[in-house]
Protein: Proline dehydrogenase
Organism: Megalops atlanticus
Amino acid sequence: MSLLFRPSFHHFLSVRRLGTAAPRALNGRRVVAAPHQDNDALPATLTFEDPSAFRVKSLGELLRALGVFRLCSVPFLVNNCGKLMSLARSLLGKRGFSLVLRPTVYAQFVAGETEKEIAVAMEKMSSLGLRPMLAVPIEEDVGESTGENRYNDNLEAMLECVRISHSNTWTTDPMMQLKVTALMSPELCVKLTSLLSEQQYDLDLLVRAMDGESIRFPGLTDSENMHFLCSLQRLNKVGEASVLKVRVLVDAEYTYMNPALSLVTMAMMKKFNQNGAWIWNTYQCYLKESGSLLLEAISQSLNQSFCLGVKLVRGAYMDKERKLANQERRPDPIHESWEHTNDSYNGSLDIMLDLISQNPERYRIIVATHNEESVRHAVSRMAALGIDKSIGSVCFGQLLGMCDHVSLTLAQQGYPVYKSVPYGSVDDTVPYLVRRAQENRTVLQGIRKERDLLRQELKWRLRKGLMGGR
């Protein structure tokens, strides 16, 4: 039977609460809530409270993590890290700055610069049961556009990422991350988002443009249309290089460009996801509209006959989104509270898990979160629905250098776990790290538990050493 056989919707299970509006409908059929099972079904060892999860780390790695996390827990340093790093670079010079950063922050969160350095880091990760999800640290925001030649250079970097991900034996199911704004100007993304609020672009037109046909898209100037065609062909080259080899997870960005990002991602899915989920889209559950966007994507995947891959995140642009909404005097797009965001995340997670339990080859999800409650919720629902953790339709993801007590514990229990792994030179990765730090400041400032577990492990080793142990 074809992977794209359309199941009847009375088989669909669904959500208790999805965003702020539930229950919802899909293709005119009401989505019905599945019975919820509490965390009593969890394996007894999946508590994320055992410092021995860090026993695989060297003493140097423990000390480095403790030092870096101590710095990351200081709000002033996180909030001003961009300015502070620029100041340090001007005072120390390029070489001095690199000598300070490489063994500390860089080593904690970046795999390396050369392919050899990356391979060493990835082989160690693989030995711990973790899988790499490589990320080229390239992206742009409005006002940062660098021109067509730069986007073509970025394409070569993306294709190199596909090659590195596929040509090594770190994992049998490699993944990589892709920022659309590395290949298409954010200004065009904003323009397309504005146009999409009034009219929809046919995915077939985008696919034809990817294949090289000279399509004229309504609402765009000649130069914008030409850039759009070039951008679609760049995305097409990434898809052609990765299909059947590497799963490409397209990141969401800001709400003022996300509809355009989703449009081109759906076009890539339509072309490349006919027999499996090779292109995935990201859904930010701190947005009030995230639930409806996910349901629309599920409906579109059925109507357009392609498989759906979902990267589920809480979101990382909260401060900027709220500030922009306030400046533009429009409603805040972010959920009012952390509890609402949790409900949104777990609700969307439930919908995807229900679909995966019915057709694990058509739907895939990466539970990309540092939140222990959501991880436990996912594991519990997988058990209740009989989803086999070994087939990879459900996997988990955290950032390299963070939340290792969750990642390592999950991996030890046999769940597929990916770490988001940026790589590149110090100069290339510092802007990426600064942006990630500012977007994830609440996570960075809330890593007390991981720090405490690292301290417990360090004390245990010191006691063993004093007692003549290992």
